[in-house]
Write a structure and sequence with these properties.
5 strands; alpha/beta; 5-stranded mixed beta sheet; globular; 4 helices
Length: about 140
């Protein structure tokens, strides 16, 4: 999977934004975020508005690079019920966007320009309201 797969400069698809999440298996806040997104049908709600999601998993419970088995377990946990693309980041390439040691990392990319328009560390229940504000400006 490449980020360029989501590029939409001419509006030919309904996608407007890409919400990228970087999580670790050991991260309790990351688990809580996925549980909250599942409980609130966040993916279904925002996908209908033109936001695609991409989840990345970078470390396992022992702080080693995440493996395919970690990815499968993470995506299939009933409280997560991931329906969007979920990929491994064993080389921690998303680490370049972390500005603290807090996890998860959430960033939003404008798919017309492939510009990062929002970077947040940690998780807040107000995050999706901020994403909605970005959508309203498009």
């Amino acid at each position: 999977m490449r980020l360029s797969d989501f590029y939409n400069p001419d509006g030919r698809s309904d996608l407007k934004l890409l919400a990228v999440n970087a999580s670790a298996v050991w991260c309790s806040v990351c688990r809580a975020e996925y549980e909250d997104m599942n409980a609130n049908a966040t993916y279904r709600t925002y996908r209908a508005k033109g936001v695609e999601f991409l989840g990345t998993l970078f470390e396992d419970n022992s702080y080693f690079p995440a493996q395919p088995a970690d990815l499968m377990r993470w995506g299939q946990v009933s409280t997560h019920d991931v329906k969007f693309p979920l990929v491994l980041d064993p080389g921690f390439k998303m680490g370049a966007y972390f500005d603290s040691d807090a996890t998860p990392l959430n960033l939003v990319i404008d798919l017309r320009t492939m510009t990062i328009v929002l970077v947040t560390m940690g998780y807040s229940t107000t995050y999706w309201g901020t994403v909605q504000t970005l959508l309203n400006k498009l």
